[in-house]
Structures
1.
Amino acid sequence: MTSSRQLAAILFADIAGYTALMQKDEQLALLKLQHFREDLENFVPQFGGEIIQFYGDGCLMIFNSVVHAINCSIHLQKSLKNVPAVPVRIGAHQGDVILEGGNVFGNSVNIAARIESMSIPGAILLSEKVYSELQNQPDMNLVSLGHFEFKNVEKPVEVFAVAQEGFPVPKKNEIKGKFKKQSQEKSIAVLPFENRSSDPEQEYFSDGIAEEIIYNLSQLENLKVASRSSSFAFKGSSEGILKIAQHLKVENILEGSVRKSGNKVRISVQLVDPINGFQIWTERFNRELEDLFAIQEEIAEKVVHKLELTLLGKEKRQPFIERKTENVKAYQLYLQGRNYLDQRINIDAALSCFDHATSLDPKFAAAYTSIAYANFYKVTFSNYPPKQGFPKAQLAIKKALSLDGSIAEAHTMQALVDFYYNYNWEKARQEYEKAVLLQPGLSDTYRVKAYFHSMLLEYEEAIKCAEKAYELEPLSVNNCFSLGDMFYRSGRFEEAIKILSGLVQKYPDNTIARDLLGYSYFLNGSIEVAKNILLPHVNLSQSAHIYIIGRYRFALQQGDKKLAMDYLEHLQIISKSIWVNPTIISFMHYQLEDIKKAEHYFKKAIEDKDPGIIYCNIDPIWGNYKLLPFVQNKLKEMNLIK
């Protein structure tokens, strides 16, 4: 991929308070977002600029002229006052940038983003470099706000504001941004609560208590909360509190136990300083089970108080999110279903739990969201026909969003259906953006969004999303695998090998990670290493999935045509009793040079809405399969290639 360097004026703009508005009035928020984007698409080209990227409620632009960039900003802010008025912050800087693959990189981009972060609605802030270019503009009134030390910026930057009529100038107490000198963010990890009930099946209940406390605490923007998957990685661990805190990079640990007997529950909680093991706070809660939700919120409130955290000042705190349901039995079923779903151990059992939960509380939005995920997982992991699984997922997610449009996971699920089943790329992109705005700390959204970008061949953005997910939850096996997968898909095999080697070393039974590592070595030219990884594990699987086909391509390339023939026969036999991706069978025929049958099964894949149609365009192990004329025609029809 070629790159070039140039001097540019860089603008960052975003909508202030968009996330809060989205939660309060989704329709109004989307109207404002539409107004914002339409004005940008109108004004930026008029002033000779280029929109580099929309990201959620923000936008990055570059201009060849500083004067044009600021004039564009002025016209934009004036237009955004029209109904529906959009409160936008703008930051500008000038400097060298690197253009590569439609993206812009460089320290100057970072500085522009930092300046935008300290702006206020309606304002236009700019660096001293931009100011120096505007000094000879008689109609430009600019005032200095002083010098600021920004995070990850070596030298202080003097920042100015456009001060002509109609443009607000931030006051000192209004300036908030990404500065070097900020108070240290407090942090906490909530470990899985110990199940002390006589019934081991109640473990999902104790896990659910910890999970809900994590979710409540994560609503506080001044508190860093280790994610559920990161904290739960230490379930049953013999490591001490200090080691766990170091792994999770937190200052405080919340641990506890749950004893449930009949309709009574006792929850013991202690907040611990991991450095000295001192209990900062400890308390017991003996309650009737009907008080469960109040207990969760009470514990979270007390932890917040002990950490001396406030969101809106000491006298006022942001309330916690509303409960998912007030029906305790429905909530218990939901937790039990989540336990099945998270472990992928029994998706049908999970569905039964969620269905029962929604029968007890027909307004339980989170349970409908989980029904959608369960049906998606059945297609992905359990050879379930897409034309059966995806419509069920669509129906459930439609119900969930009609009940509560603020659930980030619901928008992520809607994006998955829009992408894999409806083939509506732009709608899927919008849903991912909503999910990120609603819960920017949810790593799973970034991980799934990475796959979306990779499917559209937007590899740089895919890697950024995968890196963000990994940064949020570095202990997540899924996030580690996905980061390696994104490097693999983009042809950066050495980086993929580095990530996947560590994962396979830690989890040697993870067959998909091991296969992907073998493919990376193979495609990077290390044939002998790939052979040692792949060939000992080539066997006839009882099921079939997209990632397994590379083993047989490699075996065939090594001259073992019999194994490939045996595998093809196996696929055709099991496809009589379960659904098997027709693209896999098509690919196998292609590998055996039977193009006629390859085309026959590809047509069946189109009829079945097989997700493999999209995979064949981006997975390097499929080789030149995507160049077959009938494949090319379909990919062009789907706007996946030009």
2.
Amino acid sequence: MARKYVSKRNLEFMLYEVFDAPGLTRYPYYAQHNKKVFDLTLAAALKLGKDLLNPIFEEMDRKAPYLENGRVKVHPAVRTIMAQFGEGGWIAAKFDEKYDGARLPYLIADCCQFIFTAANYSASVFPGLTAKAARLITSFGSPEQIATYVPKMLGGKWQGTMALTEPQAGSSLADIATTAVPTDQGHYLMRGQKIFISAGDHDGVENVVQMMLAKIEGAPAGVKGISLFIVPNQRPTTDGGLEPNDVTVTQIYHKMGYRGAPITELSIGEKNDCRGYLVGQAHNGLAYMFQMMNGSRLSVGMAAIGISTAAYYAALDYARQRPQGRLVSDPTTPQVPIIAHADIRRLLLFQRAFVEGAFALAMQCCLYADLENALEGEAKEKAALLLDLLIPVVKTYPAETSIRSTSQAIQIFGGYGYCEDFPVEQHFRDTRIHTIHEGTTGIQGIDILGRKVRMKNGKAFDLYLEEVGRAIDQARAVETLKPYAQRLAEALDELRQITAGLIARGEAQGSRAMLADATLYLDYFSLIAVAWQWLLQAITADKGLAGHPSKANRNFYEGKLLTARYFFHYELPKAMGLARRLSEGDGLTLAMESDYFSD
């Protein structure tokens, strides 16, 4: 029997009732679409997840990729997945028509990607990475580079990757050592080593195209000397064929989860015959790569939500069917399904409050991306600033909270959840990578506090306060939501004060003192951001109830309102403790010298 891993009803609620995706079609940029197109796209994505991705969810985990004769072997279905995603236009979904794309709004395309990650995260990575790498080429590459690589990538025949990390550098990209030596033949000779490269090689495609960061000989030190190169594993020849490009897979990493997609170590230019092709201007590679990294950060958050959503529905189904224990009010009754117990409902409420609140925040970011595409001038800048501000939040809150959420799904299953007989142990393993992917949690905390809330003299932060303030004003007009509007208003005012205090601390004591608890600040900011999204959902659900819906829709809206109440009563209060810590400023972690960590 097919398992449920997403709610079509909730997707439609978000797209059509909360965020009004069809409203985007009034802008010329999205005018070729309508709600019928969106409905058909959503239905096709659900079918693809059900028929192609989810049936091999466990199998891809159990039969992990392996290295044989220098080539990575993946599950045979990967070739089918890439072909179908290419032929069906899914890889090109957000691209312009000139690339045979559909120019779908982010709201719709990323909602479909969410479905794919919930169905089978490992399988979703192959086309997802390829789309982002191709976007990098269309944005900054030459017409010749676009013509050579993009059609094959969007068609699902060639894989795309991002090749940043090196053994000695990790997240510190300023320290990368891969070099590029210019030649007089239109290419550079590349040499170095890359680690942790997702899909860095596999037999599910004809070729793999690495979007690689390296330093040209004689480049400036640090990040100012980084350039971006296209480095294919097999380089195209003049007669339309392919030949080896001196990129060698030296190992596949054996992982805790996310096992269906290979993570590789690559040796570049061992024979001094690896050709790389400069993208855009020299020494501007990190700025280019940030486009792919920011897109990937949104995707990482969405993937964590997707995995946790699948775990939530597995736990919900089990809780409804598993009889155990009796109601404490009457121990003489027969056993009841465990969903009747209050603590199980608390565990389920936490999961639902997380996955649906975080998904709404991700959809909010998608809407800002769509408005940035569709608008001009000051309105365009506003959307871009809000999206930039929220990227570390939408990446990190889902990534961190999904660990707890999938763990609680295991808890509902009890001992069975810890075993491979049920899917939740795999969801728990699969999601753990997301706090590391595309910049660790600590890096995201430094980003939001050290840069984002202060960029353009605090303009992005001020715009955010206005956005949340508008939702508060709307909720105050609904009698039952007034208490929650007030709670969020108080939290938002405290966020303003805490942020100002931390910035003042930085000015007085230096950035190290200001950023010592940046991760806590990100946690704090995130709780308020998700409360904002739950208030928006509550406003919409209240309107739905006023429309005298059917019993099924009434249950849906009532469930939304109660879950919103849960978040405000159980999760948002945690912000108070974080605010207290952030206001203390005693530099405790800085005072703890490394030598004090003695045995």
3.
Amino acid sequence: MKYLLAIDAGTGSIRAVVFDTKGNQISVAQTEWTHFKEEGVPNSMSFDFRQNWTLVCSVIKKAIKEAKISGSDILALSATSMREGIVLYDKEGNELWGVANVDARADKEVRFLKENFPKIEDEFYRLSGQTFALGALPRLLWLKNNRVDIYTKVAKISMISDWVLAKLCGVIATDPSNGGTTGIFSLNRRDWQSDMAARVGLKDTIFPPCYETGTVLGRVLNQVCQLTGLSPNTKVVTGGGDVQLGCAGLGVVNAGDAAVLGGSFWQQVVNIPSLVQPPKDMSIRVNPHVVKNLSQAEGITFFSGLVMRWFRDAFCQTQKEQAAKLGIDTYAVLEQQAKDVPVGSYGIIPIFSDSMNYKNWYHGAPSFLNLTLDASKSNPISIFRSLEENAAIVSSLNLERIEKFTGIDINTIVFAGGASKGTLWPQILADVTGCVVNIPKVTEATALGAAMAAGVGVGIYNDLVSAAKELVVWQRSYAPDLNNKKLYDDIKIKFQKAYKKQLELVDEGVTSSMWKAPGL
């Protein structure tokens, strides 16, 4: 029996997952890692590549041991990571500097670019589908302004999963799905657009080769084999961004396919042809997919999963105790009780994430509106349901924006991530959107996508589309209640009006934004 290895470099942890060639998970090893704030640098989130390489090696070695196999049994490996995080190298390939995904140190640089190149963000967005909010250009400019000794040595740039593969095989390269999130990229050509850097006074010679996902880069270096337990015969294959490879692991690989990924953040993604232009209002992000000739229109809902976890821990002690006695998850208890709360949750309106506005991206102050003094209606269970409804409403608004500029009619949604584990939230999502919601039978979609990429590299699968067709299995399906949809259509209108007023309070300095993009 032969195996494939997926390395998943997430925001909060690094994982190594062993799969067999039929897509069955054999073992997983995981350890948390942290991204430290650089002293004296507000809003920074540095990537500790020295310590983190030690952690990468440890989880690979542990996953092989847990699988009870040897490194020579692993045909190929690939990697995926949080997007936007970057690593910079000198001409010998040694790491110089790195940041994780939501590093927001370049606030002044974003403002500088917008003020001194007033139309360039719009122009670059039309080419790349990205704004400056999470892009690499402001961060590189920050480095040039504040760490000139490092900047002068920079010879190459890559994303974090690219860094993992480079450490394993010695080849620095990227793929479209991950490299595209730098914003220094062409959606149409699926390659770097290096003149963007030159136009704002930055180096334009630091961009490594860009290969499609599933391309063999090389084999594991001998010295790395000793650290990881891998074999020098194991092939190292290009991977991709976590959302895009996660979509491959969910079977979202054809034009028009749509998914809602319900994790700490929620992403709403729709596959579109690479030639489709991003929307003129710059409201939605567009990224290259891991599938050739496809991009993904992406809406992002901030903190949906994190808000739910906060609410559970802060206000649901009774339900936590009930769940402990029953030996089940607290969310299962909350969902069971919330089924008896009527659609609309007695008018409670949560204010957390707004629908996406990529050009002018900020949020209102966290709050709940329309609470009453009637404890039978304004209580933790009603508020819990209102949060589930609100996440679905914001997802629906983002999907509607995508439908508007692409002309795609979305009628089926793949729903995955922690939010899809229950039964109430998927039904609410179906009712709010009016779409059939399908739940895949997979627990590690992102890692499975990376394993698929590795399998493509060694010819086990012809491509990611055929791999998804072979490996993805469906577990449950939810049809929408169209009577409930009519009610939710009215609730969506009220939410949008309420959120607009909440943003005005932020603008007036009365309340504090939950999050603002750098430069606002």
